[in-house]
């Protein structure tokens, strides 16, 4: 696709975004619910397309050209189709994030200021492997009044086409503007998208550490994303042993390739001799390869459990397969220091029954989500009640953590006057600002004026 053709698609998306921004919640929700039903009704089309991707994906895996985690993320089944449908429906259940008054100020009689939420406009989402990312991102963008251009990975080409076709047809049938959701394909299109500053308002990448960093470093368009998911679980000396075994197992094994899965485990030196072998045994039985520091190496080996030696690079590596580096630490302060140094500010958890230790950890760990006595895998937009997520952001500007609807709107000010001039408020006999907290909605203010 040429840059001219791409610019044409973005222009169409821009026109659609202006219409989307004015649509009522009822219209958007009706379209989303129709799309949710359509995904279920046409699931055979989607699953047939996914089978083609899986055949090609396994061939690439055998040739060493597709990592196992990406192959695992590629697969769709009946359960995932049902989850996709429920997710789209859940987005329709959420409050409309557009047009909310966040701030109202009566500057003077007949001079009122309002700060309201508005869509970004045109969003580009570039993602790898997972075809279930497409309906998540599209649903959230439509609900928040944004047009979206979707660029999926080539390994999920047929799946993405099928899901896109089903959802786009549903959206258009329910009156959403043409161009509000577009699928773009081909590796070369990415470089073109990254050069569309002034036309594209926000880029949301989802994929590997290297992939997201490439996007961030090669565009002047704002990028919302995380560079990696090096997530920790710290097992404190006051941890409940049963909780520790189960939570650590869930955090590493439940979905190893997820960005919010545990990538490093830290454990207090006081409980490591007794508790570490129990945790390690459960993990190894599930196929996890443990890589230990010198102290954890001795403890695990002495209990007849296989373990490899960890190197310095392991503490800053995001393992998406079943590998887990383990380190014994002297206490919570050392755990905090390790996490803030080596972590990616994504998601980190402490297992402890000591309130003072927990409070210290929650306050001092500098991550977008910090958890007590639960798996890192809970760090997810759907589980947080956001309906879905376009990704998890480790940025500190605009949005942080799982990004749902609130991360897809920005703000603008509306000032309603009645003939005021700045010169009226300057000089010897200047008028004074009231600066009283406002209560009226700006649309209500215009309605009263019309009457």
Describe the protein's architecture and organization.
- This protein is of the alpha/beta class.
- It folds into 2 domains: 3-224 and 401-409, Aldehyde Dehydrogenase, Chain A, domain 1 (3-Layer(aba) Sandwich); 231-381, 3-Layer(aba) Sandwich (Aldehyde Dehydrogenase, Chain A, domain 2).
- 41% of the residues lie in helices and 19% in strands.
- It contains 15 helices and 17 strands.
- It has helices at residues 3-20, 25-41, 43-62, 68-74, 78-93, 133-143, 157-173, 188-194, 209-217, 241-253, 272-285, 294-301, 332-342, 355-364, 442-450, and strands at residues 101-108, 111-119, 122-127, 147-151, 181-183, 202-206, 231-235, 262-268, 289-292, 308-309, 323-329, 347-351, 369-372, 391-393, 401-403, 409-416, 436-437.
- The strands form 4 sheets. The chain has a 7-stranded parallel sheet with strand order 10-9-11-8-7-12-13, sandwiched between helices. The chain has a 4-stranded antiparallel sheet with strand order 16-2-1-17.
- α12 links the parallel β9 (289-292) and β10 (308-309).
- α2 (25-41) runs antiparallel to α5.
- It starts with a helix and ends with a helix.
Which overall shape is indicated by the principal axes computed on the Cα atoms? globular
CATH class of the largest domain: Alpha Beta
DSSP helix fraction: 40-55%
**Any idea what the CATH architecture of the largest domain is?**
3-Layer(aba) Sandwich
Average residue-wise pLDDT: 92
Q: What is the domain total for the residues?
A: 2
* Number of helices, where a helix is a run of at least 4 consecutive DSSP H or I residues: 15
Distance between the termini: 53 Å
- CATH-defined fold name of the largest domain: Aldehyde Dehydrogenase, Chain A, domain 1
Taken as a percent bin, the fraction of beta residues is 15-25%
Cα Rg: 25 Å
CATH superfamily of the largest domain: Aldehyde Dehydrogenase, Chain A, domain 1
SSE class: alpha/beta
**Strand tally:** 17
Strand order of the largest sheet: 10-9-11-8-7-12-13
Largest pleated sheet: 7 strands, parallel
Give the low-pLDDT segments: none
């Amino acid at each position: 696709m040429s840059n001219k053709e791409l610019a044409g698609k973005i222009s169409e998306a821009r026109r659609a975004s202006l219409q989307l921004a004015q649509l009522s919640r009822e219209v958007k929700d009706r379209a989303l619910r129709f799309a949710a039903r359509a995904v279920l009704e046409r699931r055979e089309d989607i699953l047939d397309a996914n089978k083609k991707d899986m055949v090609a994906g396994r061939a690439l895996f055998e040739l060493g050209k597709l990592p196992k985690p990406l192959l695992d993320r590629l697969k769709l089944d009946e359960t995932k189709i049902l989850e996709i449908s429920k997710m789209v429906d859940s987005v329709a259940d959420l409050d409309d994030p557009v047009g909310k008054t966040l701030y109202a100020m009566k500057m003077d009689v007949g001079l009122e200021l309002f700060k309201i939420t508005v869509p970004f406009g045109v969003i580009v989402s570039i993602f790898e492997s997972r075809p279930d990312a497409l309906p998540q991102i599209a649903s959230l963008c439509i609900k928040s009044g944004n047009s979206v251009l979707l660029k999926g990975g080539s390994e999920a080409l047929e799946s993405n086409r099928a899901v896109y076709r089903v959802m786009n047809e549903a959206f258009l049938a329910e009156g959403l503007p043409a161009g509000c959701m577009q699928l773009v394909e081909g590796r070369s299109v990415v470089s073109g998208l990254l050069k569309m500053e002034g036309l594209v308002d926000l880029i949301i990448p989802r994929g590997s550490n290297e992939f997201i960093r490439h996007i961030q470093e090669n565009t002047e368009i704002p990028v919302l994303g995380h560079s990696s998911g090096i997530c920790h679980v710290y097992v404190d000396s006051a941890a409940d042993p049963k909780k520790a075994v189960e939570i650590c197992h869930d955090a590493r094994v439940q979905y190893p390739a997820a960005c919010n899965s545990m990538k490093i485990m830290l454990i207090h030196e006081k409980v490591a001799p007794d508790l570490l072998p129990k945790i390690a045994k459960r993990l190894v039985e599930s196929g996890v390869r443990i890589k230990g520091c010198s102290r954890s190496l001795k403890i695990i080996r002495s209990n007849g459990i296989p373990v490899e030696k960890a190197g310095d690079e392991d503490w800053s590596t995001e393992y998406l397969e079943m590998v887990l580096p383990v380190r014994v630490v002297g206490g919570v302060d050392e755990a905090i220091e390790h996490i803030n140094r080596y972590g990616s500010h994504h998601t980190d958890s402490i297992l402890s029954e000591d309130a003072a230790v927990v409070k210290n950890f929650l306050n001092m760990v500098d991550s977008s989500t910090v958890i007590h006595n639960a798996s890192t895998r809970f760090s997810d937009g759907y589980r947080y009640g956001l309906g879905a997520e376009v990704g998890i952001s480790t940025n500190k500007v605009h949005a942080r953590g799982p990004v749902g609807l609130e991360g897809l709107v920005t703000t603008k000010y509306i000032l309603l006057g009645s003939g005021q001039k700045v010169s009226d408020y300057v000089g010897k006999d200047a008028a004074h600002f009231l600066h009283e907290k406002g209560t009226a909605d700006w649309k209500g203010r215009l309605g009263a004026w019309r009457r």
